[in-house]
Amino acid sequence: MTQLTLTRPDDWHLHLRDGAALAAVLAHTAARFARAIVMPNLVPPVTTTAAAADYRARIVAALPPGARFEPLMTLYLTDHTTAAEIGRAKASGIVHGCKLYPAGATTHSQAGVTDLRHLDTTLERMAELGLPLQVHGEVTSPDVDIFDREARFIDTVLAPLAARMPRLRIVFEHITTRAAAEFVRDAREGIAATITPQHLLLNRNALFAGGIRPHLYCLPVLKREPDRRALLEAAISGNPRYFLGTDSAPHARHAKETACGCAGVYSAHAALELYAEAFEAAGALPRLEAFAAHFGADFYGLPRNTGTLTLEKADWTVPADYPFGDATIVPWRAGETLGWRLARQGVE
Ligand code: NCD
Ligand code: ZN
Ligand code: ZN
């Protein structure tokens, strides 16, 4: 049987939620990844180091027995995040970045930043302390076409920010367009991007294949085929500025299958398997390890993992749903067959 053994990978963009939802999804990630950057968009959001420490303790308490998984915490920036809070975050050793949600851009972003210029001293402190800024990169104006919001964000927010704060380390999260891939490739030092499995494997046609597909609706929304191809080229390029971030974003079935459904694709149940599918289709399986296990750690200044993870070429069927507290969650590819299967994690 064909096997693929990698250094244990990390997920550099993940939503774990809290409470019963956290308990329902965490094992999927911990079975595959050694560490994950945990997004702070809870309700209420994780805006302080103290709240991040409490959330981290709840994640650790929810781990399955024997799991070895380290949550890397983030703070949710608001218009009122102070430079002093950045100092506490860095000193804590548990916070590895601060997340910029433009107010109104995505799930639970209502408390996000309304104008980045309110935050100059806060961002300057982040630059000084080497704490990365993670960015949901879309403008929020309803006047801007939803397929153009990422590109518009680059021109009006991200490029000016990168120039104004030349030492700020920035992760452009879940990039979805050729414009974003090219911006990151050509940007100054200290700028990187995460890429999700759905944006590597699907274009926007998937949202409407045979009918509307709410479980494939995420933000930023799937884009055109030339964008998907550009992202795939970036992911397999061996350029260390691009690394794995699933953006696995669980929502209960009833919150997706409704008149106004939530944004987010759930992929944690098969995250690495899906990336393997994308890399294999591109003839680039040997490039998966660095994308999944090396480049993100290097960018964040963390040691690479020492254990291994093995996938095997074997068919398995994704369940129709998984329990999710009192509800269920519909995973990406529910009821379909995947060609890569998780085999084991190796000891260090
Ligand atoms: C994310 C979520 O559900 O928290 N949803 C999504 O569609 N990606 C939020 C985000 O990452 O923008
Ligand atoms: Zn986002
Ligand atoms: Zn996300």
Structure description:
There is one protein chain. Helix content is 33%, strand content 19%. The longest helix has 16 residues, at 149-164. It has 348 residues and is α/β, with parallel strands linked by helices. Helix 2 links the parallel strand 3 (35-38) and strand 4 (70-76). It has one domain (9-306): TIM Barrel (Alpha-Beta Barrel). Bound molecules: N-carbamoyl-L-aspartate and zinc ion (ZN) (2 copies).
What is this structure, in a nutshell?
With 348 residues, the chain is of the alpha/beta class. The protein is built from eleven helices and 13 strands.
Task: Looking at this protein, list some descriptive labels.
binds N-carbamoyl-L-aspartate, alpha/beta, 13 strands, 348 residues, 33% helix, binds zinc ion, eight-stranded parallel sheet, TIM Barrel
* Proportion of helical residues: 25-40%
Overall body shape:
globular
Structural class: alpha/beta
User: Distance between the terminal alpha carbons, to the nearest Å?
Assistant: 24 Å
Q: What's the name of the CATH homologous superfamily?
A: Metal-dependent hydrolases
Number of domains: 1
User: What ligand molecules are bound, each kind once?
Assistant: N-carbamoyl-L-aspartate, zinc ion
CATH architecture assignment = Alpha-Beta Barrel
CATH class: Alpha Beta
- Strands in their spatial order, largest beta sheet: 2-3-4-5-6-7-8-9
Spell the H/E element sequence: EEHEHEHEHEHEHEHHEHHHEEEE
Q: What is CATH's topology name?
A: TIM Barrel
Radius of gyration: 19 Å
- The tally of strands reads 13
